[in-house]
Fold this sequence. Notes:
The complex is a heterodimer of chains A (277) and B (308). Chain A is an all-alpha fold and 277 residues long.
Amino acid sequence: MMRKSKKYRIFRAIMLSIYLVAAIVPIYWIVLTSFKVPTDLYAYPIVYFPKVLTFSNYSYLFSFAHFLTYFKNSILISFISSVISTTISILSGYVLARYQFRLKNVIVVLLFFSQMIPAYLLMVPQYSMFSQLNLINSLIGLGILYVNIAAAFSTIMARGFFVRIPRSLEEAAMIDGCSRINALFKITVPLAMPGIAAIFSFSFINDWNELFTAALFLNSDDKYTIPVALYSFISKVGIQWGVLSAGLVVALVPTIIVFAFMQRFIISGLTQGALKE
Amino acid sequence: MVRLLERCVLHVRKGVKSPPFFIFWMIFPVILILSIFTFYPTVNGIILAFENYSVFNFSNIHFIGLKNFTKILSDPLFWTALWNTLWWIVLSVSFQFVLGFGLALLMREPFKGRGIYAGLVFYPWALSGFAIGILWSWLLNAQFGFINDILIKLHIISEGINFLSVPSWAFFSVVLVNIWYGIPFFAIMLLAALQSIPQELYESAEIDGAGIFSKFVHVTIPYVSSTILATLLLRVIWVMNFPDVIYGMTQGGPGGTTNILATYMINIVYYKNNYSLSSAVGVFVITILMIYSVLYLQFTSKHGADEF
Lengths: 277, 308
């Protein structure tokens, strides 16, 4: 329905601009704040277009806190956990999409049920379990929990993707003597690559942003991920908006970049994988 | 346990040819991980809710029946949090949905630079809720905040409002930020659904003389209704268990007025260190969500939304 009337186009342009401004102003504001000199920062009337910009907030941030370490921790843990959770969700999602078996419905219901459990109900039992296993303050321990958090929803998404891929290709490969698992990884997985990229990015972003579990399970500075660092940073230095803004920019920019690159995959994956058959 | 699972899963439905061992080993990792790190702790957490486990009481942990539940039910802060949770969900999700749907409708027809535009309006979805909370508390700052400054310049208010320390404003603010944060989610989901509507449906509706409104009600809505119902279901569950934004902005304060059950629970863990008490709140949350999901699925299955 191509409503090409001029009135509609103007209306649309105005509405789209409102959405755009609402989305962008907050992030512009925080980036601006992070580059302001202290006199501009707490000046009234508010300085919208500062004449002087400074990197001092960033240099203070990096001298006070080991942001490079946090950065490394965050990248490492988000990447490895997402690879693992995506891999196991490929396996389970594939079987749920292709085969009928007893308990299948039970498994699907359990996957959904796991989405309802508040993280804080799990954390205390998880904590006592992990302290027996010596996994407190360990990135490996936290990584296991991240795989656990992502596993169910990733499986649901993966299932949605595999349902859409015709099984005839795999069957042909298997007739040619390919094993089931080989057929999956050589034929089906490449076809489902956009969806798999979406699953991966979705869990990567979630892991990157996760705060509460990490704050409980990590307790030494050298293990902190970025959200935990930001959290402890506030409790240590209080609210110093210049430095805090610099910290926010450092925390937010990587996800914005990942999102910019993966946007198309994430969007198609989320919408097709999770919600439609 | 493995044996038991194997026997259960392997009992394949008759008439369908499928390779039992293959199925078992493929699904095993996810079941194993969820059993150990989600379901087993869930059971333990529920048991915990009936005990007296706190930092001040490590040595003598025993069952105390329903005491935690009666204690919570008699706490006025719990009732505030429960009531707030309801409003939090209803207001957040409905406005996220309406504004997100609006954005999706505006974006469905191609225009120049739509890809870049999508990146710019959708990005908040990928950010950390906690960071978003902090960011917005700076924007809402009474003296140096952008929002107050704009409102003053537009002569809507004459002096800065202390958004986060006046109770009624504080709750309004956290909801507003959560709406802002969640619009892209609905827009993304619904835009994809809208774009999958076959053009012929509209054309035949036009032949029947349908106007814009009638096409919207009779073609658009029915076609995307299953996506709407499915996203709403998931969204309500996620938003209920989503303390991040509030924690970044007010931590449930001032005086518990911006608590939802999720932040109320966290505050019990952090400030009272009473893990059994917090688990009791968790049991409430699970119960509410299960009742909600069952009712919702029953209601929607009549409307053809069993899409998962």
